[in-house]
Design goal:
CATH architecture of the largest domain: 3-Layer(aba) Sandwich
Largest sheet: 6 strands, mixed
CATH class of the largest domain: Alpha Beta
Order of helices and strands: EEHEHEHEEEEHHHHHHH
Number of strands: 8
Structural class: alpha/beta
Number of helices: 10
Helix content: 40-55%
Radius of gyration: 22 Å
Strand content: 5-15%
CATH superfamily of the largest domain: Glutaredoxin
Strand order of the largest sheet: 2-5-4-3-7-8
Length: about 290
């Protein structure tokens, strides 16, 4: 099963970029581990572990979280412990020391737009991919890290337009699994699928045509959903990760030229913002490396 790991103002300078995806990344909320900024999380796979000092299962999970951090911190991955049982500096510090925790731990950090519902209980873990979309939310650390690993794979890749659809070996649309990918021409394929749906609805349609038409309709729904998600991602990423937003815009315009025209006026300014963003990230990395010496 294929996993889809599932007009804003363009700022002329990345230095004036207003980050608004995450909340709580403040010195006041910081307990231990590396301090983070919004820019540190842009383009990364982020796993949030919601926990508390008075939660037995949460505390038992801490050593495993440290193992994940040790194993994956060299990748485009950030693990954040989000304490959810009120300010408790001494109790948190004691657990950090006892478990040798080195990953960032904050008080009540999370997505500015609202986290997935934890059903009122902790521990609770969710994973956000490099495009800022939640790809896992639940209580299984194993499932969470699997989702994170799948998200690593998707970095640098343009998304599928068929989502998590599974095509059978005998499906007449099996080839579309590789063709309907953002960046590849899709308009003519969509038109062909629409024609299939129309034929399937005619009185003369045979069982084979009806079955093919039903699958074609399902593919069209998946493409429509993917387009809506991609456009939503673009709007959010313009603010937090201009290079990724630009990549999606170019891919969207290649797949759907007519609809991609809406981004024509923004591409030049976004290209400048993307270059400045990359330069700022490189400068920050060089500064951090210099500080370690």
């Amino acid at each position: 099963m294929k996993k889809l790991i599932l007009a804003a103002t363009v700022f002329a300078s990345v230095l004036s970029l207003k980050a608004d995806m995450w909340r709580g990344l403040t010195d006041e909320n910081h307990y231990s581990g590396p301090k983070l900024t919004e820019e540190d999380l842009a383009g990364k796979v982020v796993m949030i572990d919601e926990w508390g000092v008075n939660c037995g299962p949460c505390k038992r999970l801490l050593p495993q979280m440290q193992k994940y951090w040790t194993a994956f911190k060299s990748k485009e991955f950030v693990l954040i412990g989000s304490h959810r049982q009120g300010r408790a500096p001494e109790a948190v510090a004691a657990l950090v020391k006892a478990n040798g925790l080195t990953y960032p731990i904050y008080d009540n950090v999370g997505l500015a737009g609202g986290e997935p519902s934890n059903g009122g209980g902790i521990p609770f873990i969710y994973v956000v991919n490099h495009r800022g979309r939640v790809v896992y939310a639940g209580r299984s650390d194993r499932e969470a890290i699997e989702a994170a690993q799948n998200a690593f794979i998707s970095i640098g890749q343009l998304p599928s337009l068929t989502g998590d659809m599974v095509f059978g070996k005998k499906s007449p649309h099996k080839a579309l699994e590789k063709q309907l990918v953002l960046g590849k021409p899709a308009a003519s394929i969509v038109k062909r699928l629409e024609d299939e749906v129309k034929r399937a609805g005619s009185k003369a349609a045979n069982p084979g045509q009806k079955a093919a038409g039903a699958e074609a309709a399902e593919i069209l729904r998946a493409v429509a959903a993917a387009k809506a998600e991609i456009k939503s991602d673009i709007e959010r990423l313009k603010k937090t990760n201009p290079p990724e937003a630009l990549k999606l815009i170019k891919g969207f315009s290649a797949s759907f030229p007519a609809e991609g025209k809406e981004y024509k006026e923004e591409i030049r300014e976004l290209t400048v913002a993307a270059k400045e963003y990359v330069a700022a990230q490189k400068a920050k990395a060089a500064e951090a490396k210099k500080a370690k010496k």
